[in-house]
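Thread: "does anyone have the structure for this chain?"

Original post by V.I.:
We have the sequence but no experimental structure in hand. Need at least a predicted one for the grant figures.
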Amino acid sequence: MRKTLTALGTVLAAAAPAAAQEPFVLDEIVFAANLGEIEASRTGTSVTVLGEEDLDRTSESRLTDLLARQPGIGIRSQGPLGTQTGITVRGVSQNYVKVLFDGIDISDPSGPQVAYDFGRLTSFGLDRVEILRGSQSAVYGSQAVAGVVNLQTALPREDGTTHAVEVEAGSYGTFSGNFSYGVRKGDDALGFNLSHVKTDGYSAANEADGNTEADGYEATRLSVKGETALGEGVTLGFSGFVERSKGDYDEFSIADGSPDEVSEATARGLRGFVRFETGRVEHEVAASAFTIDRTLSGSTGFGASSQDYEGGRQSLDWTASVAAGQAQLSFGADITWENYDQVSDFGFGASANGGSSRTLGAYAEWEAALSDTFDLTLSARADEHSEFGTFLTGRAAAAWRISSDVILRGAVGTGFRAPSGYELFGPYGDPSLTPEESVSADLGIEKQFGQDAFARATMFWIETDNLIDYIGGSYTQVAGTTRRQGLELEGETAISDSVRLTGAYTYTDSQNPSLSSGNTWNSGFGRHQLALGLDADLSDRLTASWGLLHVADRPTLDDYTTVNATFTYDLGNATEAYMRVQNLTDEQYELVDGYGTSDRAFYVGLRASF
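Reply from O.Q.:
Generated one for you, tokens below.
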């Protein structure tokens, strides 16, 4: 699978001698960039696609370890697997990133700010990850200010029945496994995954500060998806999942002097769709629902404490598209209801709050091949929110294939983030808050060096006004503009027939108005981030993959460098054994001030398909 991995200047130099003038082979289909599917070489959106090869190559069970080495992505983790973890995209925090799982929006509407907690996410059962950068509100509505992460599980690609098993054990008393089943007959397909992970973990509060209590985690996730063709151009499909998890964590005061903080969560999602045709017009009508129930329990100086959260999201959407020559027009409408309820008791009496909202949207997109070498996409959307009225967003993206091996890409878009239910209706909320507004742009050029190497450079810029912050005991709008701008360099090349080098460098410059220390825009992302990967065939059956990540010039934290290594041995009969070493150099560092990260750790695993 041809993937859009990344590079830096040294990779550009290494790739240059191979500059054969051959056509682009970037025929990867991208599902999330537009309202419809589009070839990677024709989209002006900055996107990274990680496929099954990428997930298997490093065998990292915690997906954020792989995401951290992608251009523009930063990780903010408050401890081991299962603890609160967010990502930044180009220095913009997780509550500005929409996350989809098989088409279901899984961002948590019950949190103080709507965001997805990546701390519970493992790579088990995932077949594909797409990362879109830049404002995508014209396609996805509120929250997609920094971008979109699209997670997909697999459906069988060929007729027949397939099974896959993966088991892993290692440091910190970690055991995990996944079983996948799939069956396809023509246009009818069904697939499901069942995964389980259990770990004793390490202290979420940094052990270097004298904290010794290990924070464990256990989770089980079942996902299923399928589709069937009914004939006459009608297709039915569905996807769904349920995940139950329980883990220890260390409270916001960081120190683990009261080792009884426990987080329990049950998340469920379901989506169904029907595709059909009326004349030349293709339609898709879909309905989806997501619910999450979370409980945080522990103790305070006043006695036992608990916080119960319930969040829900239901949506209906209709999209139609019609082709006209070299152009395609897509249009549609959707409606989304969100709600949350919270009951808190910190040992001196319970209090409750909650709220709900409704958003009605209408959208249109025109995608055209204006010539054999130039593609243009124009998107527009209007959202009417039950609390703050109508908001308009737009996006323009273009791809120009200057020659058979050079592509120039550009995109500009506006975005917005609606205040969360908690910010509007919570005990510290303000129902008069208005949406945060943003504008983003990026411009990039990509050069292909034969069939086996490429290099890409992308400049980006994003700014947001009307930022919401917690000041003086309540949420309020902040005057001024928050800005992120920088450069991403990406590339890949073959050093020899058996060795490949990949690389990514991201420079991010920031400008903030006066914000509270707890605002997520004050995240400790690095101004400089360098990722290198080296993949080698050591023998006919033994392969190795090394990954280096260096993050420098963080506002409040020290620089750090980590190295991971994975060795995979092909046992034959579609069976592989692997050993993974996390933090090979035993680097001592923090991703969030006061919270710990893994020491050097070893894991062994076995995966087989039949």
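V.I.: this helps a lot. Helices lie at 9-15, 52-58, 63-67, 137-140, 421-425.
O.Q.: and The chain has one domain: 9-609.
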